[in-house]
């Protein structure tokens, strides 16, 4: 195992980024809901230079009976790639991984061709997991268990061999170039069985290994220190008289010594215990402890943490379980337990046929990482007890995974006295046979998700000056259909009103942050946080319509009965951006007439949204948009844009043939039709509108209601005028809209070229406007915009005839 940063750097990083830890708990299951016994298991983990992780292990869903499984993820646990490597006729189990200086990865592990034929493999990939080269040992009982990279880019692999050395099995040390060429190799051991499970770089440029020592009848830990050239500096064994021990991990400590960890088969607490042994830089025992429960606790691997304490990972049965949970134990600098947490399934989860590693590490942001595998009902209510899932947990410095599955383990420790002895191992130069292996590879993601009690929240904002917010925790996800994390029933505890709110929903919340603790019936606990903010309640538009008299758009809404709203803001879509164009006080009529310069409902349709501003100055989210109806004519053919904003069934076709605003319905079409042809237009002139009826109506105030939305008015001259002979055709005059609020359009037609004259008088007979000119035969129009409202009369002379119309301008 190669520590990625030294303790000083780790301390500095924690000082600056200790509050920025990202925690997660992920599972990888490639046969979700399958009845087949497919599994994935994590053995080794390494942090990458970008703060992410790579986890390696094995799966039986690949090329052969078992294959190498590798998962690359970012710092938040999101998967970047997953790959499987293997041979058709062999079983491969990856035990360790290291990131190399070129950004790629080297994996080592065990290869089996049968029940009694064992070998090792080493493979190199690029940063994306693409296989560059792979090699295997060709002789039986040569296994590769761990790997480090030296400063010159070379690799040193540690494992076991039975072909060379002094005893049955011996420690194998092989140095290779970055291309996989053997530079030198050694076999180290005594008269018994010795082998290396772990290798670690040391601060002097050398390295150290830990494993099993078989010098005496009871096995023990074996530790060997090497210099940079691979020459042995010292070797020691450690044992207790009545127990067999196996060293699984070693980590150099900040004082230059080492923490050795592993399993004792006959411990002081239970049948099997996890062990930590603190030794000096020369191998002298400083203290030693067993850890676990009264059951079977094993596969302990430890590292020193940046606070000077230690982190131990392994398997321990907790809460009366018969099989073990994945656990982490945090201790102080003397090995005294600070806390112990379990991270797996319903009443325990671990059982496997090969010796797993359950590796732990401290990440660069100060979090604690554990890898392994589990089965049973780990992550949701779907039964999935037929297989194992690869699990990686990244916990905070208290061992908690706020949106994962964790529980207090209640493990204990006891002081145990080790006998240390010099291990006079002999060193033999070995010549292992490494041959290129034909590994296949595939990029296969399988099923992956964050696990444990995963929480989402739905909140409603707080009204101004009130505490009326709500928060609802949702433990369900959509991994397969609708799947809920954890196992029902749940218990809930909000940090509200001294813990008085104990349901999934918290009410009566003021603005601020809130935390909920959820525990499922198997004891998995998740902690989630959410924020409730002050926010004005959104206001929806009731309808938008066109005021034909003013030729302006009108936005209408029904204001709520509340004292917390100051005003309403109106937004119009201007080139794809909703822009604030005006405001209406809460006390005023809940309508807005758009007098914005350039707005003309006769030329196009318009979209509007509104928002509310509460008395605290908070603005709500914008409403859904409503779009006006815009009508155009081609003779007696009507074409209009669809109204958007509320549901309706029919468009009503309205027509006025007099010009005084007396529109009547002539037909209806369904809401998916946007054209209509008038079968019987007036022979003189025709004004048209399109109308839709609101299903409920809108009340701007008690005395003013809006029941429908109308389009702009579009005008067409009757076909009867054009059909007459020009010699007998009569001129006509039309003022529209009439009445009006701002301006009106004076339209006329003459049958011959000649003089025209127009004069407009107020009610007192005073002439207020006039026009004289020569007009060609045909249609003409002009705009009249008086200053004052009131009753007016227009007198027109065309084709030697007088025409008189009444005109009304309203406020």
Give a written overview of the molecule.
The protein is mostly beta strands. It folds into 4 domains: 7-426, YVTN repeat-like/Quinoprotein amine dehydrogenase (Methylamine Dehydrogenase, Chain H); 454-532, Immunoglobulin-like, CATH 2.60.40.10; 543-715, Immunoglobulin-like; 730-809, Immunoglobulin-like (Sandwich), CATH 2.60.40.2550. It is 2% helix and 52% strand. The radius of gyration is 42 Å and the shape is elongated. The relative contact order is 0.08.
Quick overview:
This protein is mainly beta. 2% of the residues lie in helices and 52% in strands.
Strand-pairing-aware structural class: mainly beta
Q: Strand count, sense and closure of the main sheet?
A: 5 strands, antiparallel
Strand order of the largest sheet: 26-27-28-1-35
Instruction: Let me know the CATH homologous superfamily of the largest domain.
Output: YVTN repeat-like/Quinoprotein amine dehydrogenase
Instruction: Determine and state the CATH class of the largest domain.
Output: Mainly Beta
Mean pLDDT: 82
| Level-2 CATH architecture of the largest domain | 7 Propeller
Helix content: under 10%
Q: The CATH topology of the largest domain, please?
A: Methylamine Dehydrogenase, Chain H
Helix tally equals 2
